[in-house]
Amino acid sequence: MKVTRELFSDVMVPNYNPAKMIPVKGKGSRVWDQDDNEYVDFAGGIAVNVLGHCHPELVGALKEQGEKLWHLSNVWTNEPALRLAKKLTDLTFADRVYYANSGAEANEAALKLARRWALDHHGEQKNQIISFKKGFHGRTFFTVTVGGQEAYSEGFGPKPGAVEHAEYNDLESLKALMSDNTCAVMMEPLQGEGGIIEPTDEFVKGVRELCDQHNALLIFDEVQSGVGRTGKLYAYMNLGVTPDILTTAKSLGGGFPVGAMLTKADIAESLKPGTHGSTYGGNPLACAIAEKVLDVVNTPEVLDGVKQKEQLFRDGIKAINDKYNVFSEVRGQGMLLGCALNDEYQGRARDFLMASNDQQLMVLVAGANVVRFAPSLIIPDEDIREGLARFERAVAAVVNG
Description:
The chain is an alpha/beta fold. It contains 14 helices and 15 strands. The strands form 3 sheets. It has a 7-stranded mixed sheet with strand order 4-10-9-8-7-5-6, with helices on both faces.
């Protein structure tokens, strides 16, 4: 059977509009399509392929566990799940782990836990959840409502209630919404889909203080910022602020679907047997791979390398911008960077994505005004240089019409 891009339109629901080419093979930060054209990958599966494509140690973990045990359900536990949970709790503020299959599911669990915890300790009136405009927390009905982008939540009927949105980096707007009925504040410690926005020091510390003041839980959505992407294992470690609940997915599996919610023991008590669950959550195959990802990423070599590679990207983007003057700034940290378009190119991020694709470079957007890079943490320097050369040709193509 010949598989073509046209087949997509015949058999798939039209909620995606993928590129014309179909990738068939990946190695490190290079990808090949059906016609054997080679692409440089700055997209990383949307901040997922943390160690690139087909990393030998991840392939090894997959093969080894694949010969042993794939799935049991949560009627039984398994060794990889327990080993991974021990590592996650040893390496973070958390004492307890809940497994899911994605970031949205990890966030769903975090939100349900926050509501149950508030009910158990403070009564049913304490149910308000506050998040931030332009935030993104997933596509389930609860998480998309908590997310601060109406385009994603409109048109599906009545939304879950008691959810409010403040302005990111604006403490007064959060203060105006908070009360003793707030059960949780959910935020990304580095906004991803909303345009790669970093929190100010004053803001993130102020959010923590307001949560303490009102007995509310602080939930950090680290689905995109976690597992080494900022040069620390988790972004909160750079901020001097510790959340009560943290969610992690994307890079955690290095390309294999897995998510986790991390929290303190006393908060975790509110998810008693039967209150929440996931058929596949914590399956041995996913956990064995995620454990290997943690072992490889959480080394000085990889984490320190992220900062050095970030500088290489920033220098290269500056050189391109000195020539073509299309970006107002480069946002973000580590291997999560956003090239914000200046006034002249507002709304045209997708044009740069398409032009990059034509130059055999895979990039992302974060909204209509930001071109996003989220490559492997171990992308070789020569691939960064080659990718930026292709990006320069793409920028030139957009600028020259």
